[in-house]
Amino acid sequence: MTxxxxxxxxxxxxxxxxxxxxxxxxxxxLAHAADTHLLLVGRLDDQxxxxxxxxxxxxxxxxxxxxPTRRARRVDDLRRVLVERRPAAVVENGARVEALxxxxxxxxxxxxxxxxxxxxxPLVAVRGPGTGRWALTLQNLPSERKRHELExxxxxxxxxxxxxEAADARRFxxxxxxxxxxxxxxxxSDAGALGGDAIxxxxxxxxxxxxxxxxxxxxxxxFTGMLSWGPNVDGLTWFCREVLPLVRAEVADARLDIxxxxxxxxxxxxxxxxxxxxxxxxxxVVPWLEQARVALVPLRVGSGTRLKALEAMSAGRPxxxxxxxxxxxxxxxxxxxxxxxxxxxxAGAITRLLTDETLAERLAxxxxxxxxxxxxxxxxxxxxxxALLQLVPRK
Length: 395
What we know:
The chain is of the alpha/beta class. It has 15 helices and 13 strands. It folds into two domains: about 5-205 and about 375-390, Rossmann fold (3-Layer(aba) Sandwich); about 220-375, Glycogen Phosphorylase B (Rossmann fold, 3-Layer(aba) Sandwich), CATH 3.40.50.2000. The strands form two sheets. A seven-stranded parallel sheet has the order 3-2-1-4-5-6-7, sandwiched between helices. Strand 1 (about 5-10), helix 1 and strand 2 (about 35-40) form a beta-alpha-beta unit.
């Protein structure tokens, strides 16, 4: 039987954020087809995933602490772009890569080694005889995030920094793509940006967990997601400051529930705004989707595909998102969801869904059908495993 090793710093877990959810479903799909060992910096708490694996090695290796002051952060930025010249996540996880590299040779030989995220990509440097074929998954491209941040930059310093970071990220991504036997990305646009022969394996949705329910009439909006992830924080802040007041000018009792894990202070302070509530670390986002009239994906930065959009659509909730927020999902504007990038246009789209029952029901049904037929984890998991197993010579 094929022996596979999965290496990550993000615990595979259905009850955590988007990357953890993706890893849980794809790792289990691999474990059903191969003898699979997990090498994790962290702790695996998802018992269903744990039960599917043949072995688990857990390490406790902290990442590099964040600089404590603004001045220290600026010095750190300069050192990274002038000296280290690698993406921030790679630099911050250097000690973890070293720890993983020391453990990996002790685990035996594997036919497949699957590495998650750019932060661990340098681990390929320890590749040697008996380590089989190596696969890298880039759940998002740091070069694309920096490109978006550059477009939003408001100061000369930001533009200089993001331009350097984007160039460093592109060089790093190209080098890693050349070093690995295969690279997986979540969206066609990421594959195009990366170049080469990257294989698209999009994010998916658990269609048993997220089922359509009747659409409420109350003007409740919901955002679900990891509330410590920079693009989510940026998108929420922009939405609450620029879009929500325009919505409430038309629908006075409209309210927003922000639901997710580990909110940064910038997110928690949004609860001070009239009509905004933050619900941290809830057991499940399903009840919050069920009581919402409209789900939001107001991202301005990032790449990949959004689990939050697929989950909302599968649950039968009409979705309003930006072009970046709905990227890679094959969504047709006005058919499966409403897409808008400017505050007035997004507010108008939300207002229409809050007041037009026919439109809201039509988008809810079309979106649910789109997500449930094209993005089931069962289908995506099989596609992922088939691509991996094609790398392994038949014994």
